[in-house]
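Pasting as-is:
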Amino acid sequence: MRTQVAIIGGGPAGLLLSHLLHLRGIESVVLESRDRDYVEHRQRAGMLEQGTTDVLRETGVGDRLDREGLVHHGLELRFGGAGHRVPLTDLTGRTVTVYAQTEIVKDLVARRLADGGDVRFETEVVGLDASAPSVTFRSGGETHTLDCDYIAGCDGFHGVSRPAVPGLRTFSREYPFAWLGILADVPPSTEELIYANHDRGFALHSLRSPQVSRLYLQVSPDEDLAAWSDARIWDELATRFATDDGWKLHEGPITDKSVTPMRSFVAEPLRHDRLFLAGDAGHIVPPTGAKGLNLAVSDVIVLARALTLLLLDDDAAARRPGGDRLRAAAPALPPGLCGVVGGGQDVPGGELHRPPHLLGAGRPPATERPAPWRAVRCTSRELAVPEILPPGQVRFSVDGSRTSRPRFATVWGMPWPRCCTGWAGSRSAGAASWCCCGRRSSSSPAWAPPR
């Protein structure tokens, strides 16, 4: 049994990685120890940063997110009996979206299976070899070995991947408090999140949907959950959220409650030979900032880009469907110029191409790389790149006009400040889907793709 990437863990990190690799023509097998029903219903984070929602939409798994997700433009800090709204969108131009992790997992599982992906539930990983990469697992009472090119450990804090890294260094901190969290079948009492500071402790009012509320109370790490009846929980929440203007908390049936300790944990290195760690397998942050899921998504975006570069060389790209046409569209770039070139059909995720001067000659010297990005024309469209964003993303406008909601194109290549190469995609209807961008060094002539 063989695949290109063996992915241990069928949570959002592992499933999204498998999806991103599939869009690039890279095979993977996802191995998950739990059954599908458990994976799709375990309660986890529900607050998505805009970078996460952008990725889900751009890769074709955002339809239900757009229908059911609750977009928030601000939040409320409540203390001293009064609320104080922080207008996030006005201040940053960004939004956050309430959409439960369970729903993301359902969407990704459905998409992987619809695409013919190999996702194996109730599969226990019993061993792995990072040097001659392979994963040994048990399923259906039988033991199998999956040979691969690389292994992605996306199996969380308690998984088998991290212990397989020799010489691992870890850094951790346990906090002197915990969260008692509940799910309740009651419409939320607020349209935006409320973070409350009270003499009795912190409280958070979140939500999962227009019909389901998610609320938290600060408690001690050794809190006895059995001591908290539903009535006591609601009374304490009402006390901590109380305001001088008589704001009321909606109460309803509590369907789930648990105590979550607060801790931070980071392991290094996140790579050993051909094994990579991503998400909670490599780092844990307290749920107070709703960062865990968003960090995991960020991890696998970077990992997918790296695996693409490792697995798809120029010849392999040419052998893929349409590869000859796409490679022929790329002119030979002058020394010192890095670019993304293309033209033709919209291929989700893009086709990887490395300009010839990168294959043998290496990247330009550091002295040739400080020049800013410039706009170049590609057919009837212009890809204006006025700023550097997080690695792998560029902000651009179409036909030279900035939009109120800038589009994003993903550059599947080496992150800044290294030379960037890959395909940048625009899904604009009725126009060439793949546009061109370049960065010119002081020694390079002006350049634009051929007409």
